Amino acid sequence: MDQKPYTDGTMVETLGIVLEEVTPERVVATMPVDHRTRQPFGLLHGGASVALAETVASIGAALNAGEGRTAVGMEINANHIRSKREGTVRAVATPAHIGRSTSVWEIRITDEEGQLICLSRCTLAFVDLK
């Protein structure tokens, strides 16, 4: 899959996020837990998890925005369930609601064993590209 339209020159590239699946119904991406994504105490930074969550939700919402429109974040929350020091996390975003002007996405971030690391919900507004 060519992820360049979503990643080149962005935070996605900086954090090492790799898109694995991109459809209007589901977006999946991985992110390394390394020097780019850890906080000073050696754990996965909550902000990195939120950046991963908003990335997959935004891409999915944009695919549902319609011709001449895109999606922008309005609100995001995250419950950090379990810490992680190294390895890779995987985010799976699925829509809970797709309306005319907004969409709400649930994002589950898990580790290699499938354990829940972070549970997030992101609300996005559909806006005209003009």
Q: What does it look like?
A:
The protein has 130 residues and is of the alpha+beta class. Helix content is 20%, strand content 46%. The chain contains 3 helices and 6 strands. It has a 6-stranded antiparallel beta sheet with strand order 1-2-4-5-6-3, covered by helices on one side. The radius of gyration is 14 Å and the shape is globular. It starts with a helix and ends with a strand. Belongs to the thioesterase PaaI family. Pfam families: 4HBT.
Per-chain topology:
Blueprint: H1 4-7, H2 11-14, E1 18-23, E2 26-33, H3 46-63, E3 69-80, E4 87-98, E5 102-110, E6 116-128
- Stretches with pLDDT under 50, minimum 5 residues: none
- Report how far the terminal alpha carbons are from each other: 28 Å
How is the biggest beta sheet arranged? 6 strands, antiparallel
Beta-strand content estimate: over 45%
DSSP strand tally: 6
Quickly give the structural class.
Answer: alpha+beta
**Helicity range:** 10-25%
The backbone outline, from C-alpha atoms, is globular
**Average predicted local confidence, pLDDT:** 95
CATH class: Alpha Beta
How many domains would you count in the coordinates? 1
The third-level CATH topology is Thiol Ester Dehydrase, Chain A
Spell out the CATH superfamily: Hotdog Thioesterase
- Give, in order, the helices and strands: HHEEHEEEE
Rounded Rg:
14 Å
Give a quick summary of the entry.
This protein is of the alpha+beta class and about 130 residues long. The chain has 3 helices and 6 strands, in the order H-H-E-E-H-E-E-E-E.
